[in-house]
Every structure is written in structure tokens, then in C-alpha cells.
Amino acid sequence: MHPTNREIQAIVRRKYNISDEDFRIMETVVLKSEPHRAGQQWKFTGAFYYATTVLTTIGYGHSTPSTIAGKLFTMCYAMIGIPLGLVMFQSIGERVNKLSSVIIRSVKSSLHCRQTAASELDLICVVTTLSSLTIAGGAAAFSRYEGWSYFDSVYYCFITLTTIGFGDMVALQKDNALSKKPEYVMFALIFILFGLAIVAASLNLLVLRFVTMNTEDERRDEAQAMQALAGAVRLEGDVITANGSILSGQMGHHCTETTSLDADDTSVCSCHCGCFTSNSRHRFTVRRSPTQIGHLLPVLPMHELHLPQGKILPPPAIYPNHRASI
User: Fold this and answer.
1) Whether pLDDT at 187 is above 90
2) Residue 178 near residue 188, CB atoms below 8 Å
3) DSSP 2-57
4) How many Cα atoms are found within 13 Å in the side-chain-facing hemisphere of 134?
5) What whole-number distance in Å separates Cα of residue 323 and Cα of residue 214?
6) 189-210, pLDDT tens digit by residue?
7) What is the dihedral of CA 314, 316, 318, 319, to 10 degrees?
8) Is this structure's pTM higher than 0.70?
């Protein structure tokens, strides 16, 4: 069983007879010197690397501002720089997708394919392959310069390009690399910027594909619902024929009382269902009171109404439970 950190501290204190105060001072010195193994972090190269990690939202945490002015500037810089960085990566990703479309059309034309247009699935395959090659190539370079295993290098590239940025593995932190290896620093910065654009393009296509699939499913469901509704058109409500007869009910095969429509019994129903045709016979059953026909009557202005002269007869009595057959 491995000893804990506290047990190791106690062993070191007893072995070298170090007081608690001296041990805290030594611990502070070691922790502060740890991020500076690659050189001075706040020289131009180190500061540029720090600004890149802020702009890309990676945030390794290997170097952080300690003064109030530095923290304030970091917040202001992030508020302005992060949106601009997102726009830049989005623009680069769109141009990569356009270039991939041109290459796909050229390849399909050379192969004499019937459809030479680049589909969304083709773009996803190309950009995903390009992202995998970027991670694989970067992992090989970091494995050589940092001395990591290839799997650890792949892990570092994935964590970096997805902007997770745990900070457990950070490049450019060994052998004074920021000062003595400018080509390695340039490669690391180009890898981060170019790789983020490629991965962003790939993720945007994947998200767009998922959204499109959901939209297509919704449209398909709506189309099926409309087809089912069109196949089950029924006549419900009250219908007034030209001779003044009132038909109330639902057209179907479950009716018990019958009637027929002659050629002069043309429907004046305001709907365009085309339920009534001349010389056709339909079956109806009374469903509700003849008073509920307001939705079928045209609404006319008062000055167009021709009221009868003389004594107006009272309306006929309405029985709510009355059922009649026309």
C-alpha cells in the first residue's frame, strides 16, 4: 500500500528535522518554480502561449495572472477575444468545408459518378478523417519532443483540440523549450489554431446532421398525419341545402337513417370538402341541434339583409333532445 501525501510529508520532516514553517516555505518555493521549467512564462513567447490558451478557451492552468491588473486584463481580453476567436474558427471551418466540397466533386467527376455533388455525409467523412489525421500527426510530434508515449500524446491532442484542457499534460514545459526551441513553439501554436478549426468544422457538421435528422423526422410525421387526415375526411356539423332543408350529422358507414340529395339539393356548405355531388346518395344521421349552424352561415352586413315586411312570426320551439331524419 502506497503512503499518502501526509505520511510522506511527516517522513521528510522527521528525516531532515524540518519545522512546519520551514516546510511550508520550501513547498511554496517548489510550487512557484514548477511552471517555469520551460523558461520565463511572461516573456513574449510564454505570454503569447498564455494568450492563445485564453483565446481558444483551453485554459491549461499552467500559468495564471497573480496581480489585480493582470486578472482584470485577462477578463477584458477574454470578453473581447473569445467571440472573435469563435468567429475566426467558424470562418476557417466553413472554408475547409467548401474546399472539401470542391475536392469531392473533382474526385467524383474523375470517377464518372452519376451524382457529382458533395453530400452532407461525404463532408462529414472527409472532415472527420482530416481531424483524425491532425490528431495522429500532432501526437507523433509531441511524443518525440515531450518524451510521452504515443497514447498519452493522442490523449493530450484530443483534450487540447476539444478545448477541455485539464492541464494534467501541457506541452512546452520542459528543457526551457519556450526559449531554446522556437520551431517547436511555432509548431505547437499552429497545431492548436489549425486543429481547433478542423475539429470545429467536424463538430458543426455533426451537430447540423443531428438537427437535420430531427427536422426530417418531424416533417415525415406531419406528412403522415396529413395523409391520414386526408384519407379520413368526414362531414360533421349542420348543412343547409338550396331548398332550405337542414342536414345535420356525419357521413360514414355507421348511420341508421338515410336520405338522398337530388340534383337541385345543392349544398351551400362553406367548406370545400366536395362531399355533395349531383345525382349522388349519402347517408346522414342527426348529431346535434339545428341551432348550431352558425359556422356554416355567411355573415352579411345589416344593410344587405332583406327583412320581410309586416308581422314577424316567432321562431319555432327547439327541443334539445330532438332527433330527426331528413
Assistant:
1) yes
2) no
3) PPPHHHHHHHHHHHHT--HHHHHHHHHHHHHHGGGTTS-TTSHHHHHHHHHHHHTT
4) 26
5) 49
6) 999 999 999 988 888 888 877 7
7) 130
8) no
